[in-house]
Amino acid sequence: MEKNRAKKMYDYHVWANKKVFEHLKQLPDRIYNETVNSVFSSISDVMIHLYATDITWLETMKGSSYHDTVREVQRRKLEASGASLDELEAFYHSLSEEYYRFFVEQQDPERIIITEHPQYGRSEFVLADLIHHVVNHGTYHRGNVTAMLHQQGERGVPTDYVYFLFK
């Protein structure tokens, strides 16, 4: 799965998350945890949500059961909930390494992933589509972070895909 568009999109996701972390680390410490009247109550809440959701989809792509996935997400989310910005960045890095190890094992990005969900039932997804979903979800929430930064009088950092292509 080394030379495909889904992996390239995931590379963008990792790059954009790194840009956000680099930017947040340059801002006053209070910005990361400050309560904001927005979709999430703080930037740290957005970043933990994004981390937990990325875990959810990796576990799904790996074929973990719904209940095993929920347990793993809860365990790792609890671990990340009290983390500093640097610690959370390390969790993100570790998770991206898990994704890359998973990608190396994949021969066909177009293979079908079958999932069972208690509410939605049985679903079939193309692996590449799930990877694109992970990236799209991340883009959406990085936008939330930018909006929350603006609410606090700070600037965001450009993470549009085209900036990744320029690098």
- Sum up the overall morphology in one term: globular
Proportion in helices: 55-70%
Strands ordered across the widest β-sheet = 1-2
Average pLDDT, all residues:
95
Number of strands: 2
Our count of helices gives 7
Distance between the termini: 22 Å
Radius of gyration: 16 Å
Query: What is the H-and-E element order?
Result: HHHHHEEHH
> Biggest β-sheet: count, sense, barrel?
2 strands, antiparallel
Low-confidence stretches: none
Helix/strand/pairing class, anyone? mainly alpha
Strand content: 5-15%
Could you characterize the architecture of this molecule?
The chain has 167 residues and is mainly alpha-helical. Helix content is 68%, strand content 7%. Strand 1 (112-117) and strand 2 form a beta hairpin. The longest helix is centred in the last third of the chain and has 25 residues, at 127-151. This is DinB family protein. Keywords: Metal-binding. Belongs to the DinB family.
Key attributes of the depicted protein:
single chain; 167 residues; mainly alpha; two-stranded antiparallel sheet; 68% helix; 7% strand; globular
Short description:
This protein is mostly helical. It has helices spanning about 5-25, 30-35, 45-60, 65-80, 85-105, 125-150, 160-165, and strands at about 110-115, 120-125.
Question: What is the topological layout?
Answer:
Blueprint lengths: L4 H22 L3 H4 L9 H20 L3 H16 L3 H21 L6 E6 L3 E6 H25 L9 H6 L1
Antiparallel strand pairs: 1-2
Helix pairs in contact: 1-5, 1-6, 3-4, 3-5, 3-6
